[in-house]
Amino acid sequence: MALARLHAPSLQSCRRHEASCSLTAPTQWQLPSSCSRQEQRRRSCCRRLQCAAAGAGPGSSAAVPTDAARSELKQQLLQAVSRCNNSRPGDNPIELERHVESLAEQLAATNPTPDAALSPLLLGSWALLFSGRSARLAAAAGMPAAAGPTLQQALQAASDRLYSLFYQYVPVLAGSAVGAQRGPSATNLQILKPGRVDNVVSTRSGPLPLRLCVSGSVETVTPAAGKETTCVAVRFDRFTVEAGSLPRTELSLAWLRPLGYVATIYLDGDTRISVGDKGGLKALQAAAAQQAAMAGYWRSILSSARAFGASRPAALLLGTAAVSAGVWAAQSEWRRQQQRSLQAASGAAEPSPVPHASSSPTATAEAAIADADPRLGAFVPRFVLEAGAGMIPHPAKADRGGEDAYFICDRGYAMGVADGVGGWAEVGVDPGLYSRELMRHAKAATSSCEPGPHCPQHLMEVAYLSTTARGSSTACILCLENDRLHASNLGDSGFMVIRDGELMFMSPQQQHEFNFPYQIGSPDSMSDTPQVAQRFSVEVRQGDIIVAATDGLFDNVYPDEAASLVSASKQERGESAQAAAVTLAQFARMRAADPTHLSPFAYGAQQLGYRYFGGKMDDITVICAYVVPAPQPRSGSPPPPPPAARL
C-alpha cells in the first residue's frame, strides 16, 4: 500500500496579487483535467453507491445525476442535519440519524469529484455540520485496517476506546455536533493544508473560552486491489489546549501516534461528506460557504427593508429615527456607567455636575493622577528598559503623520503603542488624533504611577478617561517591575519577549472577528472599554529584548523572523535599541510591499476562505527595548530617577 503526500497546487501559481489589496469573495481551486482512469473510477464508484442506495445489483443502470438533483439533495441534507442537531421533544434521534445517513448515501452516489483525496478542493477550512455513525458506508468505502507491531496495535486499540468514550460522554472532544444537550455548545473547524490537518474545537466551559486543537500529518493511500476509493491516513501528533488568557498547554502524542483512515465519498466546492475507518460519518461545509450564506441572509433583510421603504417611506423614516435615538440614548447611558466604574477603579475623581470655568476633563484627570500616589520616588528598580522606536506611516497617510502612536516613559520602566482605527477617516475625522492623545495621557500618567502588576491597566484607564478627541484605537501598554514585565493589551497590537534569539512569549490578538480588533474610543464610537483588555505578567531577565508593535508589524512579519532580526541587531551588530526598531520596521515595510510574500495576514485570510495574496500595507510602529541593569546611585547622594529613553 503506497503512501504519497497530500496533493496541493503550486504556491507559485496561485500567488496572484490583487491590485486593490482588499478581501474578495472566496473562490475555489480549479479541478485538474480528469484522465480516463479517474473518470472510469468515478463512474464505477457512482454506479456502486447508486446500486447500494437503490438496492439494485451492479448490472443495473442509473440516470446520470444533474446539478439540480445534487442541489436538491444537498438542501435536503442540510435540513435533516439542522433537524437532527436541534431535535424537538418526541423526536426519535435514531430515526433522524438514519435519515441523514440515507441522504448522505444518495448524495455520495452523485459525487462530482473523482479521487477526492487528491483534489485541491479538499484543502482549506471546513466547518463540521454533523457527526454520526454509519458502519455500512464505512465498509462500502473499503478503507484498510490499521496494521502494525503488537505494541502499536495495543496503543491504537486504547486510542480507539478513548475516542469512543469521548463520543459517548464528552461529544465536543470527539468533534461531535450531535447531542449538544449532553455537552457545551461548540464549533468544530477542520483545517486541511498540504500534508497537515488541524482539528480545532472552540467552546465555552464556564467563564473561560476554551480552544482545543488536535494536529497531525496527512498522507494519501492508494486503493488496494479491487478497491476504488482513495482515502487518507491521519496520524495525530500534537494536542493543544487554550483557555482564555491562560498559558497555552501543549501535549505531544508522538509516543502514541494514533492512526485513522478517512475517505471522502462526496466533495464539491462547498460540501464534503467523509467516513472513517471506525464507522464515523461527518458532513462538513466550507467555511467560506457559511459566510456566504450569512451574507445572503442579511441581503434578504435589506431587500425587504428597501421594499417596505418604497411603499411606506414616511413610516420607514420615522422608525429609523426612533431606533437611532434609542440606540444613541442607551449607548450614552452605558458609556456613563462604564466611566463611573473606571473612575472609581483608577482613583480619578468624578467630575462635578457644574465645573468651574477653568476646569476641563483633561485637567481634572491629570489633577487626580497627581494626587493618586504620595509614595512617588520610593521605588528603586534593579532593571530598566533601554528603548527606542521606529515608525513608518502608510504612504497614503504620510502627510498627516499616519494613524499610529507610541510613548516611552522617561523613567525607563513603561512604554506603549496605539493604532487608530482608519474607518474614522470616512466621516471626516483624523484617526491619528485619538491614538496620539491617548498615548500622550498615558505617558503623563507614568509620573505618578509606581511599577507593579496593575500599573499598565491603570495607565490605560486614566488615558482613556482623559482623551477627548473623537475616534478609537487599539492599545498595548507595558510596565517593567524588576524581573517581571506586566502588560495590558487590547486589540491586535501586541508585544514579544525574546531571549537569546528565541521567542519566549507573544501576546495573542483580541478580535471580534477577522480584521475587526477590539478597540477603545470616544463616547460616540460604540467601542469596547479598558476593562476587557488582556493582562499578562511575564518573567524577564537581563539581556532580554522586548518588542511592542502595532499590527503593521504582525500582519507582515512572522514572529520567528522578528526575533531573529532584533537578536542579530543587538548581538551580532551591536546596534542600539533605536537602530534595531528602525531595522525591524523597515523590514516590515519591505514585506508589506511584496505582492508574492505569503504574509501572516494573507495566510489568515486564506484559512477563512478569502482570496488575498501578498503583504498588507499599513502604518508600522515598532518599539524595541533592552532589559538592562538600572544605574546605581552614588553614595551620599539621593537616588536619581532612571535615565530617559531618548529616541
User: How many distinct helices?
Assistant: 15
Our count of domains comes out at 3
Q: Structural class of the helix and strand makeup?
A: alpha+beta
Low-pLDDT regions: 1-62, 169-185, 345-377, 640-647
Distance between the termini: 64 Å
- Rg calc: 29 Å
Largest sheet: 8 strands, antiparallel, barrel
Catalytic activity: O-phospho-L-seryl-[protein] + H2O = L-seryl-[protein] + phosphate; O-phospho-L-threonyl-[protein] + H2O = L-threonyl-[protein] + phosphate
Domain PPM-type phosphatase: 388-627
Keywords: Hydrolase, Magnesium, Manganese, Metal-binding, Plastid, Protein phosphatase
EC number: 3.1.3.16
Would you write up a description of this structure?
The protein is α+β, with helices and mostly antiparallel strands and 647 residues long. It folds into three domains: 24-293, no CATH class; 313-347; 382-629, Phosphatase 2c, domain 1, CATH 3.60.40. Helices cover 34% and strands 25% of the residues. It contains 15 helices and 23 strands. It has helices spanning 11-14, 36-54, 67-85, 93-108, 135-141, 150-169, 287-311, 313-346, 361-370, 431-445, 455-466, 551-554, 559-572, 577-592, 600-607; strands at 3-5, 124-133, 186-193, 196-205, 208-221, 231-243, 249-252, 259-267, 271-276, 280-286, 383-392, 404-408, 414-420, 472-481, 484-490, 494-499, 502-506, 511-513, 516-517, 520-521, 534-539, 545-549, 620-629. Strands 2-3-4-5-6-8-9-10 form an eight-stranded antiparallel barrel, surrounded by four helices. Strands 12, 13, 14, 15, 20 and 21 form a six-stranded antiparallel beta sheet that branches. Strand 6 and strand 7 (249-252) form a beta hairpin. Helix 7 crosses helix 8 and helix 8 crosses helix 11. It is globular. 36% of the residues are buried. Mean pLDDT is 74; it is low at 1-62, 169-185, 345-377 and 640-647. Its EC number is 3.1.3.16. Its main location: plastid. This is Protein phosphatase.
